[in-house]
Structure formats: C-alpha cells, structure tokens
Design a protein that fits this description.
The complex is a heterodimer of chains A (195) and B (212). Chain A is α/β, with parallel strands linked by helices and 195 residues long. Chain A is built from nine helices and eight strands. In chain A, helix 1 links the parallel strand 1 and strand 2. Chain B contains nine helices and five strands; from the N terminus they run E-H-E-H-E-H-E-H-E-H-H-H-H-H. In chain B, strand 3, helix 3 and strand 4 form a beta-alpha-beta unit. Classes of the chains: A alpha/beta (195), B alpha/beta (212).
Chain lengths: 195, 212
C-alpha cells in the first residue's frame, strides 16, 4: 500500500511496483486516510512518505502499527534528518529509505519487509549510527539512548559504508535475509517506542 | 488508420525512482521516453544525441542545474522544447526557468494527465503552467507594472486578456474550462500562456541588456 501526497510520484511508484509483480492494494494521500485504509485492507507492507498534509507519516505509522500490527511500515522520504529517522523507527517503521534510491532497492526492501526483515538506505544507516554514538558522553551513553552492542555496531557500520545487504552479509558470513532479520531485531531493541 | 508516432521525450531528474515512475506513466499516455539523465551535463549530452521533441527537466540537479541545462539545450538543440517539472515554487527559479527558455513549468504534485498535456502542448508551441506557478508569475507581473520606473515597451507587455487567462489558470481552472469561459479553444488558451512567457523572456533580455 502506498501513502504519498504527490500523485505523480505515487502513481508512478504504483506502476513500477505492478510491473515488478508487487500488487498495490490501496493508496492514500494523507495521514488520516492512510490509517483507515491500512486498517481495512491490512496490506503486508505500507510504503509511507513522512511529509503528508494533516497528520504526518510518522504519526500515521505509529497509529497504523497499533491498529494493524501485521502491516509492516517502510518509510520512503527525502528527509535525512536525524529527528525524522529516530521518530520513524521509534514509531515502529521496519525500514527507512530515501527517495533517491534505485527502484531495485525499493522493491527489495518491500519484499524483505514482507518477510519481517528491515532495510535502511546507506545514508540513513550512517545517520542512525551517528545518533546512537552521539549519545556517548564522558559519563557514558545519554540515559535515553540504548547502547548498541558490538554486533549491532558492526552491522550498522557495514550498512552505513556499503548500503548493501549482500556486501554486509558476506562480511558477516550470513545470508542477506539474515542481515535484514538482525537489523529488524536491532532496531526493535535500539529504537523502542518513545512514549 | 495509423496512429501518429509517439512524442519522444528525454526525462531529466536526479531521482531514479521518480524518473522510472514517470516514464511508465507517460508510456500509458502514448508518450515515449527515449532516454533519461540524472544530472545537467548528461542531460545536455543525451538531448543533443537523441533530439527528443520535449525534455522534461527538473531544476535541482547535481552539478549543472536544470536551468543552466535548459539554457544550453535551447541553444544547441532549439527544436527540443523544455518543460520544467519541479517541486520549486520559488520566484527566482520560475523567473530563471522562463528566461532560460522553458516553454512550461509544472509542479511535481501535478497529475500525470497534466504532465502529458504539458508535453503535448510543448510540441505544438503552446505552454502549460501549474496553477501555483501561474499565480506566482501573475504576482510578479502585477508588481512590475505597479512599481515606479519606465513602463516596458508594448511588445513585451502582456495584454489584459493574457493576464486574465493567467489569473484563471492561477485560480485552478484547467485550460479547457478557461477556454470555455472565454469562448476560445484550449490550445488557444495555452498559446496565450506561451505568448506571456515569450514576453517575460524578452523583457528579461531587455533588462539584462540595459543594465550593462
């Protein structure tokens, strides 16, 4: 399902996904409508923009995760801002991709999301890493930040430098799918809901 | 009966996803994207090679901007019309795009039918502007008229009818409706818009020349 207020981009993306064998079962152009459509259609994956009129994509993601927990949310945005990334992941998004990604990255991310895996664009992984590290003060990590363990750091570092799950998988000696699963676990642990 | 050959377009935008999506959509409208480019330099090259009817050009590109590229394309490949497709509603971007020779300016929140209409109009020498772009342009023209200083020569002064049309487009009416209201055809409406753009372009050249 697609949530995006720029019709041209949305319909173009729908067209591309159909062409690639990914049926789009619903669309919405604002946060309110998005949550309703997600609840009624229960899509496997929702591709959600952040900048929406009315309720933001992040607020919509939070609500959708509550009402339709079986639907995975993949953020697709132009924003690389730390606060957006942190808020989206804390809202329960299983991935965050930039709009300048290649088509294949998006379709791969959608398929992985349907399998319960997570995906981050390279620059997003880098920002997240910086955010998690940024909490390190002389006294130790900032209280509200969960400290990443070695494995999580290694995973994020590999994704931040190559942006490619296959490359990360080779380095870690696992499958790309396992990388996606480990990332999903890491995000759940490191980015708990900010209530 | 043979259908007319498809209009040939080169798409220029730095977002792969956006380009590919628009390409698919234009295909359903019978418009063929013969090549794509993700930056200004490549755009000029590809357009020079493929000689499309229309280049659909984003403004904000890595390296050479879409406006620079537009200027260069109009110089080197004058048979290729340039339609700007951007997120920017910035007055300077609009002014520069027109000065560079863009024959139309659409926002990325347009519907695909609008982009198709923009492309088709371009091939006929007509112009299409998104409503908010027409509004910005109208503001600028009205400010220029009311500010002190020499009035521009008649040939570069939009007529009352042209300003009226611009105003109706700015209010969100589509070209067919505007035509209906004024008793003229939609292509004639778009022709008037083209005239306004040509005048604005000429006026910019005069301003540039006189300020040397």
């Amino acid at each position: 399902m697609l949530v995006e207020d720029h019709e041209l981009f949305r319909t173009g993306l729908r067209s591309l996904l159909h062409h690639d064998g990914i049926p789009v079962v619903g669309e919405a152009a604002d946060g309110e409508a998005a949550v309703d459509v997600i609840e009624s259609h229960e899509p496997d994956v929702v591709v959600m923009d952040i900048g929406l009129p009315g309720r933001s994509g992040i607020a919509a993601a939070r609500e959708a995760r509550r009402r339709a927990p079986g639907s995975r949310i993949l953020m697709l945005s132009i924003s690389e801002r730390e606060e957006d990334i942190v808020a989206a992941l804390a809202a329960g998004a299983c991935g965050y991709l930039l709009k300048d990604s290649a088509v294949e990255e998006i379709t791969d991310a959608i398929r992985s999301a349907a399998r319960g895996e997570a995906t981050l664009s390279q620059r997003i992984a880098a920002r997240l890493l910086a955010h998690l590290r940024g909490g390190q003060t002389e006294q130790g990590p900032a209280p509200e930040l969960v400290r990443p363990n070695e494995r999580e750091l290694e995973l994020l570092e590999l994704l931040a430098s190559s942006g490619d799950k296959r490359a990360a998988a080779e380095r870690l000696g696992v499958t790309p799918e396992a990388v996606g699963e480990q990332l999903a676990e890491a995000l759940r642990r490191l980015m708990p809901p900010a209530d | 009966m043979d259908s007319p050959p498809p209009i040939r377009v080169v798409l220029v935008d730095d977002h792969d996803l956006f380009r590919k999506g628009v390409r698919q959509l234009l295909d359903t409208e019978g418009i063929e994207v013969v090549a794509e480019a993700a930056d200004g330099d490549r755009a000029v090259e590809v357009i020079g090679d493929r000689a499309p009817d229309v280049a659909v050009m984003d403004i904000h590109l890595p390296g050479r901007s879409g406006i620079e590229a537009t200027r260069e394309v109009r110089r080197r490949s004058p048979a290729t019309r340039v339609l700007v497709l951007s997120v920017s509603e910035d007055d300077d971007d609009i002014a520069e795009a027109i000065a560079a020779g863009a024959c139309g300016y659409l926002l990325k929140d347009s519907a695909v039918e609008d982009v198709a209409e923009g492309v088709r109009s371009a091939t006929r020498g007509e112009s299409k502007l998104s409503a908010r772009i027409a509004a910005r342009l109208l503001d600028r023209l009205q400010q220029a008229t009311s500010s002190a200083g020499a009035t521009p020569a008649d040939e570069v002064q939009p007529t009352a009818r042209e300003l009226e049309i611009l105003g109706l487009i700015a209010a969100g009416r589509d070209t067919a409706t505007v035509g209906g209201d004024l008793g003229i055809s939609a292509p004639e409406v778009r022709n008037h818009i083209a005239n306004v753009l040509a005048k604005v372009q000429a006026r910019d050249r005069l301003d540039a020349a006189s300020s040397r």
